[in-house]
Each structure stands twice: as structure tokens, then as C-alpha cells.
Amino acid sequence: MGEATDIETAEDLTVITTHMNADFDAMACMLAAQKLYPDSIVVFPGSHEKTLRNFFVQSMVYLFNMADIRDIDFQKIRRLVLVDTRQPARIGRFAEILGKEDLEIHIYDHHSAFKNDIKGHVEVVEPTGAAISILTRIIREREIPLSPDEATIMCLGIYEDTGSFTFSSTTEADFLAAAFLLGQGAKLDIISNLTAREMSFEQVGLLNDMVQALVRRHIKGVEIAMTIVSTEHYVPDFAFLVHKMVKMENIPVIFAIGRMDSKIYVVARSRISDVDVGVIIGKMGGGGHAFAASASIKDKTLVQVEQELLDILYREINSSKQARDLMSSPAIRVDADIPLEEARNLMTRYNVNALLVTESQRDQEALLGYISRQIIAKALYLKLDKAVVREYMSTELGTVGPDAELPDIQEQIIENKQRILPVMENGKILGVITRTDLLNILIQQTDYAEKKQPDPFMEMVNARTRSILRLMKERLSDYIMEILVSAGQVADQLGFGAYAVGGFVRDLFLYRVNEDIDIVIEGNGIEFAKTYARLKKARIHTYEKFGTAVVIFPDGFKIDIATARMEYYRFPADLPNVEMSSIKLDLFRRDFTINTLAVQLNAVKFGILIDFFAAQKDLKEKVIRILHNLSFVEDPTRIFRAIRFEQRFGFSIGKLTAGLIKNAVKMDLFNKLSGRRIFNELRQILEEADPTPAVQRMHDFDLLKYIHPELKPSAKLLSNFQAVKKVLDWHDLLFLDEEYLQWAVYLMVMLRQFKPDTTRAICERFEMASRYQVIFCEERYRGDQCLFWLRRNLPIENSKIYRELSEFRVEVLLYMMAVTRNEAVRKAISNYFTQLRQVAISIRGKDLQRIGVKPGPVYREILDAALNAKLNGRIKTRSDELNFVRNYVA
Asked: Domain CBS spans what residues (predicted)?
């Protein structure tokens, strides 16, 4: 090796680097490149595997003329040698100098080409199993001598990247390179020790999770294995675990998705030519070659990454493609008799260029034709504003069945010049294939942006299903089970799909009692509700606009029925518009993954759990996660619910979700919400068993300012909140059988620091009902005045305490008990609650009349005096009351 270059004095630097998270092949390539460029400096662009770091530190660091990237003056670099990569996104800070005019770039790589690859002045790219095999050939041809240690490192790279010559990507060049290195003294015992790694306890656990989560799918006739795991901290050697799993399960193609800390890692392996994982992972921002590839992804959820991967797989796998695989569903359609202007608005809303046209015939939907955006635009340009769709639609429309192959689809769309192709079965519209869809398939030029959101109109993530019938029987009463079974039977009669969804299903797994049953119907929810109500002799309230109903049983028990629906938002923080959909899209519109579980109720599949979005995983890990990155932009009130669920269940908000909350606050989306919606969410938080942690969490996310800019969780406020909880617990243990508004007690404490005008402004901002405004703007202030009076005048007779406190409702009395720091005052209010409130006299006006008292205002005076005497303990029985009155009037 040549003399080391002094990076402080050298003016023209040659730097050798590789990809981020360097492996043994990358390390071997850097060593080999250093043999080809003797005066060069080896620099890692970023992190590298833990095993690799230990290897350097313990044994072989002396072989490298290595420098820390922080010590490099990038302006002095004249030649950049890239090994085992040519992707700008994978070389860290070195990507910043790629545009330098005086920079010479040399590339040695074995990965498949991508359109954004770095272009080099010297490029040696060959399809070998390991990149080091390329450099080894050059060293052999130039007869450059190698030491046994150098040969060992280089041979280690070959063994690692070819799976000890078992990977399908292994080539003849890899064998020849290894043979040459063995002849140079490479030590196979060292290589064996380094490649035969022992797994840590964490790795064994993660591998077990990977095996348990393994799902096999058939996509376009190709079996694809997929596993999704999650851990709160980084576990090294994920690719090694995938390799172990491939061997254990004999898997031809696998995609492993792992969320570790705040990143998501995707590792892919393929042993068949039909699936080029390098191309597939490349579209996700990663890299690799046809048989092995990986990607590291930030700022996306597991649901989004899985959805994106499936979208790419369906597009890229070259196999038999059928209409059911290619169609978008549900098909967006329009009634034949609506005006053209409305049809154009519908196209704009869903960003489509053609609509199917239908009408109802004998209670069935009939397909009449289609209409395109161009036809509508021309008609409106010609001032045909009053025209309806029927008058200008195209009626020559071919259709295909769900099993139609690509040639049939191509003939209908291209040869028949048909813009949109309906997929039909038994007279029903299953979906549509557009001309753009077909074009993307034929030329394979679909470019998925890295931050593309899951599209609910595309094929959704396949559900994970399993039977939970035993759990249901253990956790649910016979009464509830009968309701669910009979609901499934009615759905079967009507030909609908029926599912129990939401918190009811979630709480089955959390072992929490929840009998708020929500049933979603694939079909007409209101028709189902009416039929079911007749069967159960129940009452029903329907809401046609939303396709929902409430069924009220004779004993008062209620269940909510909803038509499976999708929502769209016209602008951020808007209220959603609702339309009919399928169970998949209905679940996709929900707030958090843990609320997306559904249980099928139809008889054949009764008790089958459906999990599209890894909700079981998040329940197990106790994490609150949103389904897509625009969730809080669409509906910022979901942030309050995230906090509420986090504190109620003892969960934590996922890192990405927490980041998106902060972003929504930064965008000031809450000022676009009506005060009523904020008030409704705040009220639900204050109804929780202990809202104190949730209020503190609201402060963490800077949300309290939307109640009032000066509201802060001061020590006094938090202390008063804890006092409220103690008082409410005390009150509930009295079993007084009286209802009260818990949220109102907490809100009075929260608003206590504000003057009356400010409090009234807050109530008006919340669009609070006048009956509630009285509590906060009037009664609460009188309560504070009463506390002041009691502090100054106690001890006093019970009758005076009674007269002072009897004017207040329960909520204000509980508030007064919580905020007072005077023990005598608290005891006085407690005595009123437990004793004085129940005191009453038995005598009435007729008793006074018998004694000889003439009717008049004096009656009230006498009865009040008798009550005061009883409150003060001077009289007890009815006889005492009558004697008191006789003496009083005498």
C-alpha cells in the first residue's frame, strides 16, 4: 500500500466511498479500489453495519487509509471513486459535489441500471453476484499483489453477497474471483466465522415475529411472500434475518417490511426471473439488483409502505393480468338525468376523465353508457348548461368480465377507441379500467412518487383474517351474541355483507367492556335496518343523507347501522362528504389503525376478524397511528381523539403520527374548525376517567391555545384537576343515583383563571348552548363568591349552609369542593351533600290550617323556620315539627 495521503495538505484528493449502511461487499470493494488508486482516501458516507464496525475496530483497520467524512474538505476532491453503488440518494453528503465541473467520477458496480444513476467518466458495471468480483478481476489482470488479510476481506465480500454461492444472482465471475483470492491466501475459517453470525435474543424474537406474520399472496400468477414486523428500536442485520427466513421457509420471493424506531426498512429477495426486486424496490427509493434489494423509508406509515409496495407489485410483475387485478373499484358513476355541470364537478372531485352513466330500472342499476370530460367541456362551452348527461353520453360501450385477460382488455380499449371499460359480473358493475390504466401496464412507465398517498380507489392491502369466535363467546353475553348472529342472518337474506366494526371490536382485544355496537352493511344500510327492526319489533331512526340508522330494541338497547361509505374532503378541516362504498374503503376512512378492525357477521364467515391495516399489531404494541399522512389535514379533530385514546388505553402516539400532529398545529388548521367541533372533542376528553394527562398532552402539542391563547397547564390547574378527580370519585361512591356533567366540572376549573368577559367569549367561540353558558358565565362566579363567604363566616348553623348552597346545581357544588383549600369549607359542602340536602319537614299547609293559621305568605315563613330548626337539630319528629309551629305562631 502506498504512503498515506495527508488530507490537510493535499490539494487534489481521490476519495473512495460506497453506499450508506455499508456491508462486507462494500468494504471489500473499498479495499480493492484502494489497491487500484494507491494515493486515495477511504471514507464512509454514513453509518455501516454494527458487525462491520466491530470488524474494523478489532482487526483490519490498519489496511485502510481511512478518514472521517467530517475531516474532508469537499472542495479539494478531484476524483470520486464509487463502489457497489451509483445511486445519488445512497452516498450521503457526497451527492452534494456531483455537479462540480472539475470532479472526475469512477464507478465500479454490479446493480441494475436506474434512470437517475450517477454518470461516471469511467464506468465498470457488470452483472455479478458481488461487486468485489469485478474489482478482483481487474486486480488479477493487472497482477497487483495481495496480502492474505486483504484477500480474506475481499473474499468475505463475495461470500456475503452471494450467500456463500447459493443466491440465484451468483455468476461464474464470482467463483473465479473467489478461487483467485483463495490462491492469494484468503482464510476460509475467518470467513466462515464472520458469515455464520450468532443471533442475539432480540434478533431471534424478531425472526419469530417475521415467521408468524408471513403471508403468501398470488399476484398475477406469482407467489409472493410478505412479512411485516414492528419494533420500537433498531435491531441490526435485518437483511440477514430475511436471508435466514428464505432458507427456513423455502421462499422464492419475499418482501420484508420492518418498522424500527422512526424508519421503515424494506428488504427483498427473489430467486425467480419473473420478479426483479431491484426494479420494484428502486421505485420505493431504494436500490439493489434483480435478486436482492433494500430501501430505507422515512415519514410514512406501515400501511402506506405496504400499500405502495402492493401497487408496484401489481404493476411490475410480468405475468397473466386479469381485469379483476387491473380495475379500479368502486366505479365512479353518474345518473343519466343529472345536469352536465354536476357531472363535471364529480369528475373534478375524483380526478377522473370519464364517468359511467347509469339509471335505476326495476330497482336495479342499469349501465347505459359513458361520458367524457371533453364532451362535457365542449357542451358547456356551447352554453348547454341545462342539458343532462343522457343527451350527450356515448352508448356504444363494450364490457369485460373479471376474468378477462390483457389482450381482451387491450382490444376493447384501443381497437374500439373506448376511453373507459366497465368490468361486469351478473349485470353488476364491479369496477372500471381506464385507457390510462392500460397504457401504464403496456409501457410499464408508471412512476410512483416517494410520497404518494395510498389511493382508496386502487386495490387495497389484502386483509389478514382469522376466526375470533371463541374470543367472542368468552367476552360477549348471550344477549349480544344473539344480536350479532341475527344481524348476519338478515344480511344473508338481503344479499348484503354485514360487519361489526370500530371500538366494539377493538375493545374485545383490550378486554374492556363496550356494548356500543356499530354494524356496517355492504349494501343498503337503511333497508337492512328496517328489515332487522321489523324482526326484532324494534323502533328505528334513519338518516338518509348519511345512510345510517339507529335500531332501538324494546328494552331500550340500541345499535348503530351504517352503509359502508367513503368520505372526501373539499378542503382542509372541512366536514366530510359521504358516499356509498365497500367495507375496505369504509375502514380506510377511519381515524386510527386500532379502529379499523371488523368482524364478519354473515353466517358462512361469522366471527372472522378482518384486519386490513395491521391494527392487531398496533394493539399489541400499544401504539396510536394514523392511516395516511393527510389524515390530520383532512380532519384536525382526530388529533384530540389520538390524545384521548392514548391516555385512555395507556398507549403512545407513534413517532410519525406525533410529527404530523405538530405539522398540523404549525399549519394552524384548527382555526379553520368551527368552535363547536373543538368543544365537542374537548368535552369528550374531559369525560375520560382522568383527563389530567390528556390536558398535559394537549399542552405538549400546543393545542390549549385553541381554547384560549393564555391557557397553560399551571401547577395550580393540574392540582385542581386532581382535586376534581378525588371529589368526583368521592361523590360516585355515595351512590346518590343522580346524573351530573363531569366535563362541566373540569371545564369550570379550566376556565377559572379568566374574567367573565373572556369566559363568555370562549363559550361563544365554542357555540355552547345557552343552558351551558349559564353554568360557566354566571353560576360558577356565584360559586366562587359563596366560597369566599363561607371562608369568612364559618362556623355557622346548618340552616345557613343549606340556604347558601341549595341554589347551586350539583356540578357547581363539586367544583366548589375541588377548588377550595379550606378544609372547613370542604367539610361544610360535604355535609350538605351527604346530610343536609336530604333533610325535609313532613308538615304542609293543611297542617298549619288545622292549627288555626290563616293561609297566606306567612305559611312560607313558618315552614322555612321549621326546616331551619330541623337542619340545626332542634327538632326531629313530626310531633316536634307540630309543637315547633304552635310555639312559633303563638
From this structure: 327-386, 393-448
pLDDT single digits (tens) 312-327: 998 888 655 678 877 8
C-alpha closest to that of 751 among 789, 712, 787 = 712
3 state DSSP class of 534: helix
Grid cell for residue 19: 453506499
> CATH for 325-443?
3.10.580.10
Average pLDDT score, the chain: 86
d(CA 602, CA 720): 50
pTM value? 0.57
Nearest-angstrom CA–CA distance, 818 and 728 = 9
d(Cα 261, Cα 303) in Å, to the nearest integer? 16
How deeply is 30 buried, as exposed, middle or buried, from its count of CB atoms within 10 A (0-12, 13-18, 19+)? buried
CA 312 to chain centre: 21
**Grid coordinates standing for 828?**
361544610
How far does the chain reach from its first CA to its final CA, in angstroms?
Answer: 124
Q: What is the DSSP string of 557-594?
A: -EEEEEE-EEEE-SSTTPPPEEEE--HHHHHHTSSBGG
Residue carrying C-alpha cell 352508448: 395
pLDDT at 9: 59
d(CA 68, CA 43): 6
Distance CA 106, CA 122 (A): 5
- Residue 788: enclosing H or E segment and its boundaries? helix 780-793
Query: If we measure between CA atoms, which residue out of 633, 572, 311, 328 comes closest to residue 450?
Result: 311
Q: How far apart are CA 507 and CA 543, in angstroms?
A: 27
* 160 in Cβ contact with 195 (< 8 Å): yes
Q: Quickly state the pLDDT bin for 452 (edges 50, 70, 90).
A: very low
The number of residues making up the chain comes to 890
Mean of the pLDDT values across residues 780-799? 95
**Residues 571, 572, 576, 577: what is their CA dihedral angle, to the nearest 10 degrees?**
10
Q: What is the DSSP letter of 71?
A: G
Domain 201-319, CATH number (from 3.40.50.2300, 3.40.50.10860, 3.20.20.20, 3.10.310.30): 3.10.310.30
Q: Is the dihedral of CA 509, 515, 516, 521 positive or negative?
A: positive
Preceding peptide of 330 cis, ω within 30°: yes
Phi–psi pair at 265, nearest 5 degrees: -110, 135
Distance set, CA 207 to CA 245, 357, 609 (Å)? 7, 51, 25
The CATH number of 13-195 is which of 3.40.50.1240, 2.40.160.10, 3.40.50.300, 3.90.1640.10? 3.90.1640.10
CATH of 463-614, picked from 2.40.50.140, 3.90.930.1, 3.30.460.10, 3.30.70.240, is 3.30.460.10
Q: What distance in Å separates the CA atoms of residue 118 and residue 280, rounded to the nearest whole number?
A: 19
Give residue-wise pLDDT tens across range 724-753. Answer: 999 999 999 888 888 899 999 999 999 999
CATH code for 714-838?
1.10.3090.10
Q: In what order do the strands lie in the sheet with 222-231?
A: 215-219, 222-231, 253-260, 263-270, 292-298, 287-289
Domain with CATH 3.10.580.10 in the chain: 325-443
How far apart are alpha carbons 457 and 60 in whole angstroms?
Answer: 54
Residue type, position 516, single letter: D
Percent of the chain with pLDDT strictly greater than 70: 91
pLDDT of residue 10: 65
- Name which of 306, 328, 220, 299 is nearest 257 in CA terms: 306
The residue type at 558: K
The single-letter code of the amino acid at 880 is D
3-state secondary structure of 704: helix
Please compute the mean of the pLDDT values over residues 765-774 and round it to a whole number: 94
Give the separation between CA 111 and CA 100, rounded to whole angstroms: 25
Between residues 434 and 449, which one has the greater pLDDT?
A: 434
CA distance 561 to 502: 12
Look at residue 32 in the predicted model and tell me its pLDDT: 94
For residue 804, the one-letter residue type is: E
